[in-house]
Amino acid sequence: MTETIRFGGRFVVEDSVPESVVTPEDFTEEQRMMADAAQQFMDAEITPRDAELEALNYDLTVELMRKAGELGLLGADVPEAYGGLGLDKVSTTLLAETLARSSSFALSVGAHTGIGTLPIVFFGTPAQKEKYLPALATGERIAAYCLTEPASGSDALGAKTTARLSPNGKHYVLNGSKLYITNAGFADLFIVYAKVDGEYFTAFIVEKGMPGFSIGPEEHKMGIKGSSTRPLFFEDVAVPVENVLGEVGKGHQIAFNILNIGRFKLGAACLGSSKETIELASAYANTRKQFGKAISSYPLIGAKLADMNIRTYVLESMVYRTAGWIDSMLRTTELDGGVAADGMTVAKAIGEYAIECSIIKVFASEALDFVADEGVQIHGGYGYIREYKVERIYRDSRINRIFEGTNEINRMLIPGTLMKKALKGELPLLRKARSLQAELVQPMPIPPLEKPLSKEAFRVGQAKKIFLAIGGLAVQKLGLRLEQEQEVLCSLADLMINIFAMESALLRSQKIWKANRGAASDKTENVIAMTTVFVQEAMERVESLAKLALAALETGDGLQMQLSILKKLMRAPISDTVALKRTIAARVIKSEHYVV
Fold first, then answer.
1. In a domain, 534, yes or no
2. 101, 221, 393, 477: which has the highest count of C-beta atoms within 10 A?
3. Which residue among 149, 276, 391, 404 is the active-site one?
4. Residues 6 or more apart in contact with residue 294 via CB below 8 angstroms
5. Residue 589 and residue 587: Cα distance in Å, rounded?
6. Domain C-terminal end among 205, 228, 249
7. 3 state DSSP class of 245
8. CATH number of the domain that 216 lies in?
């Protein structure tokens, strides 16, 4: 087996070349065909029955999930040996993005195929895989993931549900409850976490119908109304010892690795919903007339559509860049002959990009909230009416900042995980921060920035220096106390999020420009314009975040010196973003959909 190389988080200390990133422009014909098949399924089966699904028709949801299973849409992540398709992560990401337009049905499918099925794919024994995966791949059985409890949400390891080995050693007896379980109303199989002897956090495969296992009433939710969300109760539920998933006491390895995948897939779903919102809003803006003109002709409406399109482009660049990285990492886990390694090795390989998965989760959920909000605003009063789908997208989007670990928890994880990797010697963060100190006190002339995107590349590099300078200062000033200073950690997290977002858009745009050999075209002009606007506005956020952190870390002359360094690092020509947004908006308005 090839030795696993550790890459996660390196974007803050190393630069990448455009050729190293995967972008939507790289999709293969097979990948596009799979997405087309998913779209055709939605057009034929989901859209005509949308109202019934939104009314929480369990029987219909299960029926359509099984039809999706017949088409292979539920088995994309399941190995071929167990009846699935065993697709690469770029393909499964594109599927998740495409299916997002089916609203609550997409959530039901995502919970089943992702956090419901993947624990068995990665951590199941051969017998467990043989028993469960073929039925999960076809939809014959539906899965649910059960982690949250009434007293433990973000603090997953604080679970109170217990499991005790029976006197005859044949069963674990579960007692406790779970809360907010997606698919609970119609699932057949539940991945349940409990503490063996009240201490050893462990995962179990629990089947519907086991004596003592009951399901509570449906929650009345703000959004995602077509999905089932119910509590679970365990009263002396005897679960066979063969249904322990992974090892006793190692449930955290399953929970946290699966959450990484869930966070990443959530980003793909937010991407699909953002694109749909742009279509709805631009089409409405072209038909709605006020003061004798279509509202799309007014610059402020155009600016909204441009901003929506820009954030979606950046998110798309981040999602597929990371999907490509995960695929590359998974290839390093293959045994000779291309055979996949054991699930734990595969899950840990995906976990190498835990930082990027958290970044995508935060950026994607907040980008969709922005896009959905602007979509409603463009619709005006109609956007508040249930008959218009943008109203549902607005309600549905809100849960994404809570799902898969709240955005606050993920913001704590981003710099925290980076520091742990640095202390383990997995990336040269502290060495880079120390070597930067001498450079920061020297004159910093601005280099020639004449080529397309050269200014943006320069500014991304400066943002990385700002992060390293502040991160190094935080470690120096606070040491181990840093993890208690959540406001500083949040600033560091947001710096990392902005850097990853800027660089992902930059690399994709550079790759498109190089593919066209620098020739002018609508696409190259559009991606350069979107990248220019985003980087300039992101750098304004970077400056604000840096000042907030510096003021918390320094005072007096020390603070003034740090602010003078920040000022040097922020120096760069600015662009006319008003004009650029007008050109971007014109393309969106003309096409009435998301435009690259």
1. yes
2. 393
3. 404
4. 285, 286, 287, 288
5. 5
6. 249
7. strand
8. 2.40.110.10
Strand partners, 195: 162, 201
Strands (E), 85-166: 143-146, 162-165
| Dihedral pair phi/psi, residue 452, rounded to 5° | -55, 135
Assess whether 404 carries a catalytic annotation. yes
3-state secondary structure of 193: strand
For 517: left if phi > 0, alpha if psi spans -120 to 50, otherwise beta; the answer is: left
Please give the model's pTM, rounded to 2 decimal places. 0.96
CB 173 within 8 A of CB 244: no
Q: What is the pLDDT of residues 213-233, one digit of tens each?
A: 999 999 999 999 999 999 999
Rounded (10°) angle between helices 89-99 and 251-287 = 50
Structure tokens at 573: 């020509």
Calculate the CA 357 to chain-centre distance.
5
Residues of the chain with pLDDT under 50: 1-5, 337
Closest residue by Cα to residue 101 from 24, 40, 25? 40
* Domain hosting residue 231, numbered range: 143-249
- Residue 387 inside a domain? The answer is no
Q: Which amino acid is at 143?
A: A
CATH of the domain at 481: 1.20.140.10
Q: Distance between CA 407 and CA 419 in Å, rounded?
A: 19
Cβ atoms within 10 Å of 377's Cβ, excluding its own: 15
pLDDT digits (tens, 9 = 90+) for 216-275: 999 999 999 999 999 999 999 999 999 999 999 999 999 999 999 999 999 999 999 999
> What CA–CA distance (Å, rounded) separates 526 from 509?
9
Coil vs helix vs strand at 188: coil
Backbone angles phi, psi at 231, to 5 degrees: -85, 160
Q: Do residues 510 and 502 lie in contact, with contact meaning Cβ atoms separated by under 8 Å? A: no
Looking at 249, 282, 308, the residue that finishes a domain is 249
